[in-house]
Amino acid sequence: MTAAPTVHESAAPPGLWRVVDVQAPPERLAMLRILTGAFAVVYLTIRLPAFARLADREFGFDGVGVASALTGPVPDGMLVALIGVTFVAGLAYTAGWQYRWLAPAFALGCLALGSYRGSWGQLLHFENLFVLHLLVVGLAPAADAWSLDARAGRRRADREPTSYGWPIALAALIVVITYVITGLAKLRYGGFTWIVGDTLRNHVAYAAARLDLLGGDPSPLARLGVRAAWAWPFAAAAAVVVELAAPVALIGGRVRTAWVCAIWMLHAGILAFMFIGFPYPLTLVAFAPFYRVERLWVERPGWLRPARAQSVE
Question: Reduced to 3 DSSP states, what percent helix, strand and coil does the chain have, rounded to the nearest 5?
């Protein structure tokens, strides 16, 4: 029989606040730290060549976000230093080491890198979501459990459960607001014709044509799908409805999970038809604030537990 580690539970009020609960155990916020940190560090590692190539660019800079304060490209050494410091701070963020100082540094470093890269003309909107999550978690007491700081005794034992619950609630609300804004933007710029017209179909055709022109291989599904003109109004309507329905995720339970599955399928469809991936939601890390994610570790399989944590009946 396996003995599960003890995790402090918090009473979750019924109704709307069952998921977006202002009370949570420190382990829940700690797991959100680990998930967001691991995603961001892996993402930075994979995108490192793209960030490094920015040092060779001299023209085409148009500052966005925090980079709008710049009048032009930064020196190569400054960019390399920013990448290095951000990566090291990311490891500390994930492990929960010197969290009070290095976690905000990591979040701000990702914000600066994302803004600087976007200043060269390509905006990756999913970056905005995970950077916002890093800022929220990085400024919260997310290293009070399952961290090097906690092992070293650098944590406060007198915090209220709301100290851990509000950051998670805020992260969940950010997800909801992000998708609602996305749905409203479609209707604002395209109106009802975005649904009944050929806008979505044209997006898919453009992505395929662009890949073909640049020497890539367009999705075979795009070639087949563009011919089925009748299906695209249904797909466009489904996309807008799912995005605008994001607030139902706050209800929790099966309604929440149904919405997460629907929005994941939307992103999977974009990847399949356009070869455009949004890794933060596709890996499901974006939706971690909606769940009691501490269970990923507390209820882990027996083969992942150390021998001393197991007992035989």
Answer: 70, 0, 30
- Which residue range(s) make up the domain with 136? 26-153
| pLDDT for the residue 7 | 55
56 residue type, one letter: D
**Dihedral-angle region of residue 179 (phi above 0 means left; psi in -120 to 50 means alpha; beta otherwise):** alpha
DSSP alpha helices (H): ranges in 191-303?
A: 193-196, 199-213, 220-227, 232-244, 253-274, 279-282, 295-298
Kindly report the backbone phi and psi dihedral angles of residue 2, in degrees, each rounded to the nearest multiple of 5, phi listed first.
Answer: -100, 130
Straight-line distance from the first to the last Cα atom of the chain, in angstroms, rounded to the nearest whole number: 6
Residue 10 in domain? no
For residue 166, being part of any structural domain is answered with no
CA atoms within 13 A on the CB side of 15: 1
The pTM is what?
0.88
The enclosing H or E element of 148 equals helix 148-151
Average pLDDT over residues 38-45: 96
55, 77 Cβ separation under 8 angstroms = no
What torsion do the CA atoms of 234, 240, 244, 249 make, to the nearest 10 degrees? 60
Residue 6 lies in a domain: no
pLDDT given at position 126: 65
Q: What is the pLDDT of residues 173-194, one digit of tens each?
A: 999 999 999 999 988 887 888 8
Q: pLDDT (tens digit, 9 = 90+) per residue, 127-146?
A: 889 999 999 999 999 999 99
Among 90, 119, 153, which residue terminates a domain? 153
Please report the sign of the dihedral spanned by the C-alpha atoms of residue 16, residue 25, residue 138, residue 95. Answer: negative
Q: What is the mean pLDDT of the chain?
A: 86
